Predict the 3D structure of the following.
Amino acid sequence: MIIVIRVDSSLKVGAGHVYRCLCIADMLKDNGHKVFFLHQDSIGNHASYIKGKGYEVKLLKNSQPDTDYKIETIYSVSKQVNDAEQCLKIIKEKYTNNGKLVDWLIVDHYGLDKCWHSRLRNSTKRIMVLDDLANRDCDCDLLIDSNYCKESRYYEYKKNVSTDCKICLGLKYQPIGKEFYRNKLNVVRDKDSCRRVLVYMGGGDASGITELLLSFIIRVNNHDIHTLVLVGEKYSNKNSFYKTVGEHVHIEILEEVESMSEILQDIDLIVCAGGGVLYEAGLMGVPVVTITTAMNQKEQAELLDIDNYIKNLGSSTTLEFNQLEKLYNSLSNNWLEFKDRGEKFSFLFTDSEYSCSKIYNEMSNFNNIN
């Protein structure tokens, strides 16, 4: 079977969409299917990262660069048409030149709606959309929102899709790599205080919040807490972090790592944005503090905080030192509350079945996988 995935990453978009698509791609490849990626040639893209994982990537020309791009922005009709025409040309020449259709087209992109999907209909048997905004019409057979959300979200999506579209919601569909499920079994969290903290604000940290967090950690200067600061390859100012840290031995800068799951095994707390790592940490029982860096992260972080699964500090655009001071004091005085939230969060992932296999099963139900 041939599956084409349309996804983007950039300095502004980040890499979360690519990471979750790679989880799905790995699941499909493990089951003997061929997976290819279509990706816009944007500044700070992760196309080379996808290639490094063993997948072919075709780059699309960016006809209208997004100088003031917001993650929830739906592309103009002209931009969607241009994008769709490029995709159709590549699919026809590269993957369906024998007249056959692609088996599945997976679309993980907030900028593309029914306008784009409909133009690709004649090139594929089925379309699957990954979403968590419910803010646009979609022409798809399967829609998956794998975030923690209200039950009412189903009815929001129902208004945006055809009556025969299958809507799948919830954490059981969250694309998390198999290694997190394996390493979860090796985790024992019985410390009576917080000793090791991981700070990770995503693949690019366009918000620049990492620098503020570093400044706070240095100001506190607590050598009883060892802080790991993970920076992605797209961090424009990562070289300055090393100068900022200087001789502070209780702070360690990490660049791209081979296994996030192995790092999370030995971490007592993670401070992160509201992307995929939030759920990876949750699966492994790591207490989570979120600082949201994009609009699509806001609702899920707030809901998880209200239901006492994580601690949410709000948006990076409004974060202040006094909030960090309050968090630091809570870690010292109410550590058990953080531990309890982390344990409670992990119970949401008690189903032993690998989450991507549930996505695979939903695709299989359309009788396109033999």
In short: Residues 77-95 form the longest helix (19 residues). The domain at 179-349 is CATH 3.40.50.2000 (Rossmann fold).
